[in-house]
Amino acid sequence: MIEISKDKEYNKLLNKIGSNFLEAKNRVYKAIDNELTQSNWKTGQYIVEYEQEGNIRAEYGKQLLLQLAKDLSRLYGKGFSRSNLVYMRLFYIKYPKGGTASHLLSWSHYYELLKLKDNHEREFYKKQSIIENWSVRELKRQKKTGLFQRLALSKNKNEILELAKKGYKPTNEKDIIKEPYIFEFLGIPEGNLYSESELETKLIKNLQSFLLELGKGFAFVGKQYKITLANKHNYVDLVFYNYILKCFVLIDLKVNEVEHKDVGQMITYLNYFNAEIIDKSDNETIGIILASEKDDVFVEYATATVSNKLAVGEYQLYLPDKKVLRERVKQILEKT
Fold it and tell me: Strands (DSSP E) along the chain, which ranges?
C-alpha cells in the first residue's frame, strides 16, 4: 500500500493548503484589528462631540467616562474600561482626521503611541513603526530606550523636524549613529568588568535585539572577519551589510575610551574593504568604532582629515534617562 504522506507531490499539496490557510487567517486577524482601530477612533469621536455639545467641564468629563465604562462593559463585555475610553478619546483628539491614523498599525500600537505627550516624538514612532514593521513589543523597547532623542541629538533643528515627519531613513554614516547605543538587552550589570570578546559574544547571542538597535537595513555578515596584510592577520569584530545604504558596515568594539590607534586600525580596515572586497554595485564601506566612552574633542581632531566614512559612537549597558535626553533635544529645537 502506498504511503501518501511520503509522496513529494502530496507534501507540496499539504504545504500549499497550509500556507494558504495561514495567510487567510492572518488577513482575517488584520481585518478585525483594522475594524477595531476604526471603531475605537469612532468611539473617541462620539465622546468628544458629546462633550463639546454639552460644554462639559473636566470634572464631569471624568464622571462621564466612568459611567460609560460601567454601562458599556455591562452591555458589550471587555474592551470598555475607563483606561481604554481615555485613550479612545485621546485617539480622536490627536488624529481628528481619521486618515492620519494609519491602518497599518494596530490599536495596541496606538495605545502605546498615545502615551507620548510630545507630538514630534509620537509622529516619529508612528512613522518608524510602519517603516520597520515593529511589533508592539519592539515599539515599547524603542520608546524605552529613547530612540527618537538618541537619533535627534546628532541633528540640527530642521533635521529633527524632518526626522519626526518622515521617520528614520539613513542616507549616510551620520544617520546611522545613535547617541548613545543602548545594550540593556545584554543583561550585563552596570559596573561589571567584561572583555571585548565577551561583549561581542553576547551581542551575537542577542543578534535580533542588536539588529533592532542598529536600525533598518542591517544584515549580519560575520564576526572576527579576517584581513591579511603583510603576512599578518587582523580581525574586524563585526561585519554587516546595510541594504539601504548599499554598503558594508564594519564595527569594532572597545570596552574602554577610544584611542588614536583605534581610529588608525579602522581606517586600515576601511581601505582594505574598499580596495579588496566591495564591487561596483557597492558604495564605500562605513566604519563604526563603538566604545564605552569617547572624548568628543579628541574624536573631532582624530577624524578631521579622514576621507573614509568613519564614525565613533558610545554604548551603554543600561536604559538612558529620557528626561535628560528630552531636555537636550528641546534645547536644540528652541534654538533660532
Answer: 181-182, 218-229, 232-242, 247-257, 286-293, 309-316
Q: In sequence order, what are the residues at sequence separation of 6 or more whose Cβ sits closer than 8 angstroms to the Cβ of residue 179?
A: 150, 151, 153, 154, 313, 314
- Cα angle 280, 234, 176 (rounded to 5 degrees) comes to 55
Residues ≥6 apart with Cβ < 8 Å to 81: 69, 73
Q: Is the peptide bond before 180 cis (omega within 30 degrees of 0)?
A: yes
Query: Could you tell me if residue 194 is left (phi over 0), alpha (psi between -120 and 50 degrees) or otherwise beta?
Result: beta
For position 99, what pLDDT does the model report?
Answer: 64
Give the CATH number of domain 181-319. Answer: 3.40.1350.10
Rounded distance between C-alpha atoms, residue 290 and residue 59, angstroms: 52
Cell of 90: 485621546
| DSSP letter (8 states) at residue 284 | P
Q: What is the pLDDT of residue 91?
A: 95
Every domain of the chain with CATH number 3.40.1350.10 lies at 181-319
pTM of structure: 0.82
Q: Give per-residue burial for 151-163: e unless 16+ CB within 10 Å, then b.
A: bbbbbeeeebeeb
Q: Which residues of the chain have pLDDT under 70?
A: 1-2, 5, 54-58, 99-100, 336
Strands 247-257 and 218-229: unpaired
User: For residue 98, what is its C-alpha cell?
Assistant: 481619521
Distance CA 244, CA 170 (A): 8
| Cell (9 digits) for 283 | 558604495
CA–CA distance, 36 with 110 (Å, rounded to integer): 12
| CA angle (238, 241, 247) in 5-degree steps | 120
Q: What is the predicted pLDDT for the residue at 187? A: 93
Quote the longest CA-to-CA distance of the chain: 83
Angle subtended by helix axes 322-334 and 157-166, to nearest 10: 120
